[in-house]
Design brief:
The structure is a homodimer. Chain A is of the alpha/beta class. Chain A folds into two domains: 172 residues, NAD(P)-binding Rossmann-like Domain (Rossmann fold, 3-Layer(aba) Sandwich); 86 residues, 6-phosphogluconate dehydrogenase C-terminal fold. The first copy, chain A, is built from twelve helices and nine strands. A six-stranded parallel sheet of chain A has the order 3-2-1-4-5-6. The first copy, chain A, has a three-stranded mixed sheet with strand order 7-8-9, covered by helices on one side. The radius of gyration of chain A is 21 Å and the shape is globular.
Chain lengths: 300, 300
C-alpha cells in the first residue's frame, strides 16, 4: 500500500538512501525531510531525494503517515518529545539506530499513546562516508534490516515498516532487543571502537609519519571504519554501553590469553587461535558467497 | 646487470610473485625454486614461475648468484645452516621476512663469512591468500620494500638487492633494524593479532551463528587479515615478540582509557579520540591518493 506522506528526520546517508530506494519503488506520494543543516537539505532537494523540507521537526511531521528517525542516537529523546503532540492518530514511527534498548527507552518515555506504533529498526548497512551526497538507492539491497518490536507493538505498524524495507530490497528479520544489542556490540560497535583506538594510538606515537608511511593494504582495510562519523559512533558507544563494555571485557580476556601465550612460548596455543579465527572467517565468507550466488540464480 | 641464477627458497605468494616480476623484467637467466611441497612446485613450473625446482635447499643453491629466502620465519635458521657450506664465494643472499632482528640473528649465527653479503629485506605487500597460485607479477608495484642492512653489509650486495626489487617496480628504502621492527609491529603485526583475536573471540561466543549472520561490511573489512596464513603470522608474532608486546601494551592502555571514559560518561574524551583517529586516517588516505595520482601523471 502506497504511503501518502513519509517524513525522514535526518536526511543523511541512511535517511537519504531509504528515501531514494522508496522513490525508486514508487512507495510514497511525497517524501518530506527534516534536518538542522539547510545546505544538506537543499542538496537533498537538488538530488531529488526529498520533495520538501522543514527546519522544525514539529512542522515536518504534520500529517505524516510514516516517520523515520535517521538522526544521531543522542537526539532521539528530544525529537520524540517534540513530535508527540502533533502526531496523527495512526502515524507509524520507526528508526534506524544501531542500538535499540536506549531508543525504546526514549520512545516509551516520550511517545505516550503513540508508543504502540513505534517499530524499532536497524538496517545493517552503511559506509564510512556520511551525508546525503553519499546516499544511494541500492544501499540496502540484499542487506538485513533487524526489527526489535515489543509485545505491545501494533502488528499493523510492524507490517507497514516491513513493507517499507522490503521495498528497499532489504531482508527484514526480527530479534529481541537485548539480543540485538549484544550481537551488534560484538560485530559492529567493538570493531569500530578498536579501529578508532588503534589509529589514534598510532597517531600519538612519536614516529607517526613513518608509521603510517609503511602501512600496507591490511592496515587500510582494518582501519576503514575509523573513517566513520565520530559523533555517530560516540553516540552508539554511550547508547549501547552495557553490551559494548561486556564484549570488550571478553575481548580483553582473549587478548590477555594471547599475550600470555606469546610470553610463555606457547606456540601451539597461538597457532590454534589463529587457525580457528581463519577457519571461522573463511566459513563466513564462503556462506556469504553462497548466499549471493543463490540470489543471482533466483534472479535469472 | 642480469642475474645468471636466482634461487627462490619458498615459492609461495611472495617468492612466486617476485619470480614472476623478475621474469617479466627479464632480470634472470634462470629461476630455481626450492620447497617442501612438490605439488606446489609443479604448479609453479606449470605457471611458468620457475624453470626448475629442488626438494633440497642445499641442491637448489649450488651455483646460485642470488638467493631469496621466502620461507616461514621459523625455518630460516635451519636453512641458513644447510646452505652455508655450498654457497658460491660471491653469492648475495636476501630475505622477505616481516620481522628483521630475528632473521639477522639467525643469519649472523649461521652464514659465517657470507654474512656480509646477506641483505635483510621486507616487501610491504601481501594478500590474505597464500601459495604460488595467488602470486602475481605486479604484487610489488608502487609498494615499498624496506632493507635493513648493517654497517658490515657489502654495498655491492645492497645494490644487487635494490636492483632486484626495483625491477619488480617497488620503491626501495632503508631503515634501522629496530626501527623497522617497531614500526611494523604497530602497523601490521598488532592489527593481525587483533583481527585474529576478535574473530576467534566471537566464534567462541554462544550465539556464534547469529553473530556472524549480522556482520556488516565493516566487519568483513576489519577482519580480512584474519584470513591470512596462521603459521606465517604465528612465526611473525614470536619473531617480533618484543616490539609486538610493547605496542600491544600501548594499545591496551589506550583501550583502558577509552573504557574509563565510557564508564564515567566522559563524552568529550570519546569524541576527541574518535575525531582524532578519523582525521589521521583520512589524512593517510588523502596522502596515498595524492601519491598515486602523482605516479599516474608521471606515467603519462
Amino acid at each position: 500500500m502506497k504511503i501518502n506522506r513519509l517524513v525522514i528526520l535526518g536526511v543523511g546517508l541512511i535517511g537519504g538512501s531509504l528515501a531514494q530506494a522508496l522513490r525508486r519503488a514508487d512507495m510514497c506520494n511525497s517524501i518530506v525531510g527534516y534536518g538542522r543543516n539547510e545546505a544538506n537539505l537543499n542538496k537533498a532537494i537538488e538530488l531529488g531525494v526529498i520533495d520538501e523540507y522543514f527546519l522544525s521537526a514539529k512542522d515536518a511531521v504534520q500529517d505524516a503517515d510514516v516517520i523515520v528517525l535517521a538522526t544521531p542516537l543522542a537526539t532521539n529523546r528530544a525529537l520524540f518529545q517534540e513530535i508527540t503532540p502533533v502526531l496523527k492518530q495512526d502515524a507509524v514511527i520507526t528508526d534506524v539506530g544501531s542500538a535499540k534498548a536506549c531508543v525504546i527507552k526514549d520512545a516509551r518515555a516520550s511517545l505516550g499513546e503513540h508508543f504502540s506504533r513505534f517499530v524499532p529498526g536497524h538496517p545493517i548497512a552503511g559506509k564510512e562516508k556520511s551525508g546525503v551526497e553519499a546516499a544511494s538507492a541500492n544501499l540496502f539491497e540484499k542487506h538485513v534490516v533487524i526489527l526489535t518490536p515489543l509485545p505491545e507493538t501494533s502488528v499493523h505498524a510492524i507490517a507497514q515498516v516491513t513493507q517499507l524495507w522490503e521495498a528497499a530490497c532489504a531482508e527484514v528479520i526480527t530479534l529481541k532487543v537485548e539480543h540485538h544489542d549484544e550481537v551488534l556490540a560484538a560485530t559492529s560497535h567493538l570493531p569500530h571502537l578498536l579501529a578508532y583506538a588503534l589509529v589514534d594510538c598510532l597517531a600519538k606515537m612519536q614516529e607517526r609519519e613513518e608509521i603510517f608511511r609503511f602501512a600496507a593494504g591490511g592496515f587500510i582495510d582494518f582501519t576503514r571504519i575509523a573513517s566513520s562519523n565520530p559523533q555517530m559512533w560516540h553516540d552508539i558507544c554511550f547508547s549501547n554501553r552495557k553490551s559494548l563494555l561486556s564484549v570488550l571485557d571478553k575481548f580483553d580476556n582473549h587478548i590477555n590469553e594471547i599475550r600470555t601465550a606469546i610470553e610463555s612460548d606457547n606456540s601451539e596455543k597461538i597457532l590454534q587461535i589463529f587457525s580457528s579465527a581463519k577457519n571461522a572467517r573463511d566459513k563466513l565468507i564462503a556462506e556469504r558467497q553462497q548466499l549471493n550466488s543463490a540470489d543471482s540464480e533466483k534472479q535469472i
